[in-house]
Each structure stands twice: as C-alpha cells, then as structure tokens.
Fold this protein.
Amino acid sequence: MAMKIDFAPANIPLKRRLETAAVLKLVFSFLALAPICIVLFLYLLFTRFWLVSVLYATWWFVDWDTPSRGGRQCALLRRMPLWNYVRDYFPMQLVKTADLDPRQNYVLGFHPHGIMVSGAFTHFCTQATGFSKLFPGLDSYLLMLPLWFRAPFFRDYIMCAGLIPSDKDSASYLLQREGGGNAVVIAVGGALEALDSHPGTNIVLLTSKKGFIKLAMEHGAHLVPVYSFGENELYDQVDNPRGTWLRWIQDHLQTYMGVSLPLFHARGIFQYSFGLMPYRKRITTVVGKPIKVVKNEKPSNDELNALHQLYMEELSQLFEEHKAKHGIPEDAHLECL
C-alpha cells in the first residue's frame, strides 16, 4: 500500500515559510555543511583558485589554537534576525528561575541532548531567546565535538556562533578567567544520549558523567542544571532498544567515531509525511538555580560523588517542578541512566 503524502497548503503565510527556510539552513549546517567545506577546500587545490586553499591553510596553521582559547564570537552573527525565525518555528522559550551573578563563572549542564541539540544552539549561540537580557554580564559558550573544528571554513563559522571544542582544556581556559562572566554549556549526555531521543521519553545519561562536576570543582565554577522540555519531541527515531543489533552497531560506531548515528526522521519542506526537517513542537528550556561550588583543585572521590549526587537531585527537582506545564503526566519522572 502506497504511503499517502500530506502536502503543505499553498496559502501558508510568508512568515511561516521564512521560519521553515531558517530551520532548513540550521539542519543543513548540522548535517552537511562540514563535509561540503572539506570537499570545497580540497577541490580548490586542483583548480585555478588553488591559492585560496593555500592561503587558508596558512591561516589555519596560525589560528590552530583559537578554538581552545575561547574561540572568536561574532555578535553580528549571533544577533542575526535569521535566528528569530528559527525560534518562532518551534517555537522556543528560555525560562529563568534564578539570577546568575556575572562575577562568577558557570558550568551549565544541558539535558537532554536530543537529536541535533537544537535548543542549546538557539538559546546559547544566538540571542533569539534573550540570553543576554535574562542573564546580563554573562557570555555563553556551547561545547561541540572537537572533530568539527578540524573542518576548514566550517570551524570559523561555528566559532563565530560561540562554539568551542568539548575538551577539558577549552572549557578550563574560560573557567579560569578572572572576573567571571563566562557560562560554559555542556550537553552532558553527549552524542550517545541522542540514541535515546524518542518522543515521550525523559532519559538522560548522567549517573556516570562526573567529568563536568570535577571541572566545576577544579575552577570553583558554579553548576547550573538546565532541562529542555520538548527537545526529544522534534524527531521520530527508528526503535533501537538496548540489546538489539541496531543499538549494538550504533554504540560501537559512537565509541570508535565519536559521533552517534540515530536513524531519525520527521517532516519535509513542502509536505508533512517524511523528511529531515524537525516537527513544529514547542521547546521550553528551563535554567535552574545555581549550585554553589567551592574551588577544590584535587577533590576526593567522596567530594566528587557528593556534588554529583546533589546535581542529580537538583536536576530531578527542576524537572518535577516544571513538568506539569509541558503536558508530562504526574507519574512520569526523569530517568537518569
């Protein structure tokens, strides 16, 4: 039986079409822009424009350490009207529950990862949802897999948005700055958590994730739990429960490649039946109250475990306090794996 395709009506308002175009650009950047930049760099070497690649390679060599030294944020890019259309597509909202002192540095734990970390990018790499107005004096930086900073041209683009490599040195560089004002955002569950991103689920990989806790302790950076309601609703994913051959392959690919490969789908550009465009589902990202952390450069296991347990309790409490507003049943609770 042939699948019936549900096409979008022809009389859709221009604003909604612009929202779709903006999100298409975001999806394209996430899925295809890096490999295209690599191919373009190599292709130019064999054309009469070879000098472009040579000059860029020289610049790349000189600029190699910039991603791990705070990157190179561009306010013009982060404030582009384009991101307002991305925000309105879903729509998205950033909710503040407590003030964050700009004299401090912070580690924000973002949960859940979702398929494309759409909420984290829009909230913390753009000004579309008003991060700077909600938390004046703070600069936000989102951690991303280091391998993406090895892609020519692409690395410069993502640095302008405020992305830095997800390694200890890059985060430490910002957290050890005197005077505070830096908020390092970590999608704690990482790419592996994307494999558990199914609609209706509230799963976070956290019980064994203690590196970000230790990082905060070593620099005296306060911890802030962040939960993004709706993040897991943007895509359907092929069933991949633990123990199946598909999950076994995905887990091993993530182990060896550093990136997970969830088999996801949602809607298209001009139809609603299939494609890689996310569903229009509301995303509300709630920033919890800060957990004060005293600097301890060599924390013991007991100290590390105690703070990790406190963080999990605060995240669970944040989820419980806000879940009813987002249609989550009373008997549904956060699953920390």
In short: The radius of gyration is 20 Å. DSSP finds twelve helices and eleven strands in the chain. The mean pLDDT is 95.
